């Protein structure tokens, strides 16, 4: 059976052998609290490359120490992080799998000692620390931190960069009126709330020529927040800036009730793809090859991001191929078993 899930996908000279992407998932396992990779990370990611993922996206990696979600997050704020990522990339790419990194800043959702930063001094919830409202100088410094992180990602040999603009972290906080109540050029109108992300993308584009993704939360699940119509407009701006693909998630900028069911975020990816004319990735409770194939065949998205199913099954592509009654090439060492 010819499948779309196992067809190649090419962008800016980077070709994925299939449309299956290991979604970025924080592992909170940088045990020395220095942002560096541990042996766990190598086993974790390389096993999924052996399992024949088309693309592996390394978890959210902080562009500054204060931008970590926890003190055990990975980081890319220092040149000392380059060597570990370069070694990881070399080993993943040896299996024909491409690599990506998600550049991130946690904003007010950072659970760290000391001050945490946000567009406005509004805590995430009653149990959370109140953040410090960022000065314009701090905003500019953070934009530069994203650019410097992109330079390090390039030196480390990543094929693709994703900017994390979802899940209530710093960029998402700037975008949403629920978290951004500034009255300067970074707040108020939709254009002003987009300004921080615009500057981050411009800064990254100055130093990065490869495919560029942005992850968004396409609904705040709040009557006073952003919804899919707002994000279709944001997606059009992203496309104008040269972003190649939007990785479409949802929620988490404020506490909210979310109805979660298989494929619950796929309609967001579909609407952004149609409304903004940009390629999208679908993510969220996609657990089988048949489900993934339907999304692609009906042109609801262009890539499939697999999260928790990859935690349960490092060889998810092999499993999906069996479900679709097709076969994929095994790593040479495993050929007699596959």
TrEMBL record:
Protein name: NADPH dehydrogenase
Cofactor annotation: FMN
Pfam families attached to this UniProt entry: Oxidored_FMN
Residues given in the record as FMN binding sites: 23-26, 60, 102, 215, 307-308
Gene Ontology molecular function: FMN binding; NADP binding; NADPH dehydrogenase activity
Lineage: Bacteria, Bacillati, Bacillota, Bacilli, Bacillales
Entry EC no(s): 1.6.99.1
Family: Belongs to the NADH:flavin oxidoreductase/NADH oxidase family. NamA subfamily.
Species of provenance: Bacillus xiamenensis
């Amino acid at each position: 059976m010819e499948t779309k899930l196992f067809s190649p996908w090419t962008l800016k000279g980077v070709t994925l052998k299939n449309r299956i992407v290991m979604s970025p998932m924080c592992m909170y396992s940088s045990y020395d609290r220095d942002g560096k990779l541990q042996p766990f990370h190598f086993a974790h990611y390389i096993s999924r490359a052996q399992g024949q993922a088309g693309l592996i996206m390394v978890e959210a990696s902080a562009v500054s120490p204060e931008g970590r979600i926890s003190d055990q997050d990975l980081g890319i704020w220092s040149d000392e992080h380059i060597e570990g990522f370069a070694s990881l990339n070399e080993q993943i790419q040896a299996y024909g799998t491409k690599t990506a990194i998600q550049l991130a800043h946690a904003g007010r959702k950072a659970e760290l000692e000391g001050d945490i930063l946000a567009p406005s001094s509004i805590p995430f919830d009653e149990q959370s620390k109140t953040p410090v409202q960022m000065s314009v100088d701090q905003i500019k410094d953070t934009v530069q931190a994203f650019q410097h992180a992109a330079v390090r990602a390039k030196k480390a040999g990543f094929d693709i960069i994703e900017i994390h603009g979802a899940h209530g972290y710093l960029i998402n906080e700037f975008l949403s009126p629920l978290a951004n109540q500034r009255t300067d050029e970074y707040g108020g109108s939709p254009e002003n709330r987009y300004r921080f992300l615009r500057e981050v993308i411009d800064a990254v584009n100055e130093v990065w020529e490869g495919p560029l993704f942005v992850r968004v939360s396409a609904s705040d699940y709040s009557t006073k927040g952003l919804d899919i119509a707002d994000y279709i407009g944001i997606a059009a701006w992203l496309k104008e800036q040269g972003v190649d693909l939007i990785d479409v998630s949802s929620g988490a900028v404020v506490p909210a009730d979310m109805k979660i069911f298989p494929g619950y975020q796929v309609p967001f990816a579909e609407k952004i793809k149609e409304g903004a004319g940009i390629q999208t990735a679908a993510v969220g409770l996609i657990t089988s090859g048949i489900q993934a194939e339907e999304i692609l065949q009906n042109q609801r998205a262009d890539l499939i991001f697999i999260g928790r199913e990859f935690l349960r099954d490092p060889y998810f592509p092999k499993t999906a191929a069996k479900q679709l009654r097709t076969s994929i090439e095994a790593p040479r060492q495993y050929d007699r078993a596959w």
